[in-house]
Predict the 3D structure of the following.
Amino acid sequence: MTAILRNLWAFRAFISGSVRREFQSKYLNSMLGIAWTVIQPLAMILVYTLIFSQIMRAKLPGIEGDFAYSVYLCAGILTWALFQEVTGRCQNMFLEHANLIKKVHFPRLCLPVIITLTAFLNFGIIFVLFTLFLIVSGNFPGVVYIALVPVLLVQLIFSVGLGVLLGVLNVFFRDVGQAYTVIVQFWFWLTPIVYPVSIIPEQLRGLLAYNPMVGLMTAYQTIIGRGQWPDWSQLVPMLVLGIIFCALGLRLFRSRVGEMVDEL
Amino acid sequence: MGRISIKNLGKAYKVYPSRVARMKEWMGLGTAEQHRKHWVLKDISFEVAPGESVGIVGINGAGKSTLLKLITGTIQPTEGSVSLQGNVAALLELGMGFHPDFTGRQNAYMSGQLMGFSVSEIRGWMPAIEQFAEIGDYIDQPVRVYSSGMQMRLAFSVATARRPDILIVDEALSVGDAYFQHKSFDRIRQFREQGTTLLIVSHDKQAIQTVCDRALLLNAGRLEKQGSPEAVMDYYNALIADKANSRLEQISREDGRVETVSGTGEATTTSIELINEQGKAVEAINVGEKVILRVTATIHQNIERLVLGYGIKDRLGQVMFGTNTHITAQVQENVRAGEKVTFECEFQASLGQGSYSVQTALVSSDTHMVDNYEWRDLALVFQVININRQHFAGSAWLPPQIGIHRT
């Protein structure tokens, strides 16, 4: 473990350079540049706001105010997008960088680190704008805002663990990547993100306990939407699962890293 | 610094009959291993001393690139070990894993960072890299618009921006144009003189013979031969022509050089002589002397077409001149078993001082790849000495008339 960290530290120039290059190539090569980071989720939020709160007149018990639904939606969608970016890119990272992996010797675990840093950078930009919007519209939750830090940390552990696990598996069984894309669609809709928990029929609500993302999303919604401290116990399943995924992912990675290059 | 030692190195790829079989094995279902091992390299052991340059030759699929990848650590060995002392710069295949969307400059930084250098170090080398690569404004264009030659120029310039203890080059140089090949070989030679250990894979005989102290021949994943570049290259050429019931042997000559004979044996050379103007067989001739190379072939089986090819090589094994009777339109047709065919090739030995060797080939066409009756390297060795010509340098005698005009 310390060897891995030492290796990664030795390649910090490569990691930071890669994050910078990804950032540059993403924004510098398009005319609107950084605006796209905002436009994409904004469009999604507009669509959902329109469909759910206006056309479908969804009832959102416990949430009031002009922007209430949009704020509730953003809390879930922005963080879900972060989760999806990290896991989605991680599951494909070895295949995507096959060219590099086959030609150059470097610590392969640089890749998930680069992906995570890039994703968090993108998230950071949009989240700062979102926060400004909260402040301007008078929806800023106040001191509970700092509760986001540990919640994001739990999410980070979970997504990196899952991502590395999927990434290694996907090299050997390409079905994994395909399946994950499908699963993540269902996962999104089976998690109360665009709709509140309350619209789920009582008898089915028990099933939500088996979805670790529910606790996470609820925490974000509680912090940002309601301005309250989250129920920390809800995050425990995700944290435990995240640690298990990290351990499994690391073990799988270490035992298969040699074979992996042969399969690319 | 710069030592490479390889011990019992082997690489096998796992081949699974199906994806399901792999899953079964991973899950621990079924007791038997589901895969079989496909060995691409086995029992490779050798040492490269600091400052030594070693060339690796072999046909496609012999395992050369796999060996280099094992040495650089890109792939992991199935058995055995690799140990390297000193820092390594490696050019494996084209482009060092350049990212097509990043500019040449960004990729140069990335490659440098992948070698473990900091941004400020790379920034310091960047002007030199740009200058050596000579790709002009393309340095700030995405690599996807580069030609393969330009990618190679950049990759080479980055990899050699700083003199490494060990330089590993895989075939990459053959992509460049003649100008850049010269330039890059000059740099390689320079590094070599400064003590860099060199490991090169190449099909370019000349490159191997001029740059390397020693050559290794890989064949079907095994280290088949190692020795002087000339002997190994001769053996390699014979091996390319290796066919069923073909013999291949190397005879050590008194002077320590190795004579390689191979072929299917329908025709063999029974004598090879260099005859001077007095009609005497000699081993030393004067610069510019008229001589006859007399080759006598004995035919053992009926042959439809018989062609004699010969080449004169210098002491490094580089061909000074070569031709064959296919080129000169003197193909002998329907040669019968038992016949003796004598070829007398008369020429003026416009060679510089030194030791030269003759290689001969008895074949059926322009190349020894179709039918190779007999191929003989170092069939004859002779000296060229300067008895009565003006002193000159080099391997060719090109006496000039020098006109000088002062204005």
Notes: Residues 52 and 58 of chain A are 6 Å apart (CA to CA).
